[in-house]
Design goal:
Number of domains of chain A: 2
CATH architecture of the largest domain in chain A: Alpha-Beta Complex
Strand content of chain A: 25-35%
Shape of chain A: globular
Number of helices of chain A: 9
CATH class of the largest domain in chain A: Alpha Beta
Helix content of chain A: 25-40%
Structural class of chain A: alpha+beta
Largest interface: A-B, 100 and 99 residues
Oligomer: homodimer
Number of strands of chain A: 13
CATH topology of the largest domain in chain A: Phosphoribosyl-aminoimidazole Synthetase, Chain A, domain 2
CATH superfamily of the largest domain in chain A: PurM-like C-terminal domain
Distance between the termini of chain A: 33 Å
Radius of gyration of chain A: 21 Å
Chain lengths: ~325, ~325
């Protein structure tokens, strides 16, 4: 663990003006208000106090320049996004996020970039009282950012991908397709305020995920595309699904910027939305507060996804995001 | 968390022969014997059961191709090493390692490389009953490997850098300088069996670190070099040190391969040894078993490190490893 608060200060130890430890001191070490942090940044490891009667949930996700985000993304948006995509995995398990570690690889020690990155990172973390407790900054050819988050959940409370039951209603939060459309516009140099912000600053459904504990039978977050992620849930649960294409929630900005075919392509296969897709008994939904929740289909005894449009079966080839192809 | 066991298997979802999920299936998912793993790889996150009355220790460390290891390192050695450097941080806190997550970025899906990497990763993990519970594989320009390990320790038992007391004896495990000498030989295309193996397969002092709980006042692992890491411990503790250069443990292979100046340069500033440097009352040492433990000096009321050679004060400029210089 090298996100260290200490640095060699003795006269014998001569450093150039800015070294790794100073960088970290300046931008990443902030007041740690989160509960359960006994020792944060500055030792070989962080020491954390778990709450009695809670299980831990741990997730890790990496964003690579050129693969997961365009090089021209603002540093604070990248910092926000890398935390949000991990929070989304915690949310999909019904967990409460608590502690975060960071591994940041970058070509040079651009202090303005690091300061901005840290601002975005903390913006996302502070929304959910997540403490940065350690990390490692390294030099590499291109920017690679890994965030790991540990959360917790009541014993036996975690929501799994494997619990979907035949007859369950399939729900999705928010709207889908916005982020993929936003990325396309961003990459083309024609960013749209709303759609592009849905890509760079995704909203992790953390509170609603916790509210689903005890109600949702299965959940997954939409990172690779609605069809691809739903299929993972179905495969793990050993069930199938029937989806009504017309019910899939599509935002007004997506409707007004793209034709119906593009809307559906983004919504079904686009990915990066970080909304939750979950299954539950139809009448069992918790109060979703300000979160829009839409029923889009139901779990069947099949093995795959049947899409219907006004009752007729339609075919959609999967183009969900895959690495290494 | 995308180290997923599930993959889309429905006929509609056509993948090429090897995609990310298959790769992971094949090489990273192994039987999970470790205690406390309720849900491992294959869901949005891992669900883990902490033991009552234990605090958690979490560490994260990254190895970047070209920065931390030469491109020609064997994949299994890299896998072993990235786990070992994290285990070493857990050891320096007195912790018991339990659960590991992996973020692997690489230029292509070279299955032979991944299989070999996984073998090395598990070799290090299996030595200490650490379970791989999740991770993320991504494509990037060069290889970047991040491992995060969560361990535990009795409440209040963690050994910190901050506890060194004036009058403490300073100890170091094993021998120092070997890894830096080994890396130099490796990079020059003249690997030495013993010295190079000390770089590529460092031994994390996990059991001995746990035995130091309640005895050591302060500890740190030697990753950046003995002087540089000791200075971090001193600064955090607000004390100084006097070191007897002649007492520093140097291996026979290092002695026979390099002259005395090079030996001392490697031993004092070389880094990468992953031995423990710790302070304790002189007569309080636990049984170190097969681990060599050497007293090299004592904690003083100063602020920096005074090195003596046969009684005379000698000057050593710090050249401990720093990123971003």
């Amino acid at each position: 663990m090298t996100l260290r608060r200490s640095r060699s200060a003795a006269p014998k130890f001569k450093h150039k003006a800015v070294d790794e430890f100073e960088l970290i001191n300046r931008y990443f070490v902030r007041a740690n208000e989160a509960r359960g942090v006994i020792t944060g940044i500055g030792d070989d490891g962080a020491v954390l106090q778990p709450d009695a009667g809670r299980e831990l949930i741990t997730v890790i996700d990496t964003l690579v320049e050129g693969t997961h985000f365009p090089g021209q993304i603002a540093a604070d948006d990248l910092g926000y996004r890398v935390v949000a995509v991990n929070l989304s995995d915690i949310a999909a398990m019904g967990g409460r996020p608590r502690w975060m570690t960071l591994a940041l690889t970058m070509p040079s020690s651009d202090t303005a970039w690091i300061e901005q990155f840290a601002d975005g990172l903390y913006a996302a973390a502070d929304e959910h009282d997540v403490a940065l407790v350690g990390g490692d900054t390294t030099r590499g050819e291109s920017t690679v950012v890994t965030v790991q988050i540990t959360g917790d959940v009541a014993e036996g409370g975690a929501i799994h991908r494997s619990g979907a039951k035949v007859g369950d209603t399939i729900f999705v939060t928010g709207t889908v397709g916005d982020a993929a459309a936003g990325l396309e516009l961003l990459s083309a140099g024609k960013p749209d305020d709303y759609l592009s912000s849905r890509f760079v600053r995704p909203i992790a459904r953390v509170s609603f995920g916790q509210a689903l504990v005890g109600t949702a039978h299965a959940a997954i977050d939409i990172s690779d595309g609605l069809l691809a992620d739903l299929q993972k849930l179905l495969t793990t649960s050993g069930v199938g699904a029937e989806i009504d294409i017309g019910q899939i929630p599509i935002s007004e900005p997506l409707r007004s910027s793209f034709d119906i075919d593009a809307q559906r392509r983004f919504a079904l296969s686009g990915g990066d939305d970080y909304e939750l897709c979950f299954t539950a008994a139809d009448d069992a939904l918790p109060d979703s507060g300000a979160v829009r929740v839409t029923a889009i289909g139901r779990i069947t005894a099949g093995a795959s996804i049947v899409c219907r449009d006004h009752g007729a079966i339609v075919e959609y080839a999967d183009s969900g995001y895959r690495h290494f192809q």
